[in-house]
Amino acid sequence: MSKTVYLEIDNCTKCPYHWTDDLLTADSFEHDIGIFCKKVTVPENETTITYSGRCPYKMVTADDWHPERYALVPDWCPLPTEISPTKE
Fold first, then answer.
1. With contact defined as beta carbons under 8 Å apart, do 38 and 17 qualify?
2. DSSP label at 27?
3. 46-63 pLDDT tens trace
4. 11 is a domain residue
5. In a domain, 23, yes or no
């Protein structure tokens, strides 16, 4: 049995396919956080280095304190866009 589920997402942090990790920076006092899309992978030479190692996912945004402010759903989002059914 399968179900069709409709999600209304206005920010990537609300998506079940987002992943967040701390980014390595040149300055040890900086604290950047990256938000990545687990549905889109990038080539090895375009990966981002995080504290967990090389991240194979495409970065949505990064910021030092509040990356969710800038994590609007990008045009390249791989999730299908459909008009949700009308509520009865």
1. yes
2. S
3. 898 888 889 999 999 999
4. no
5. yes
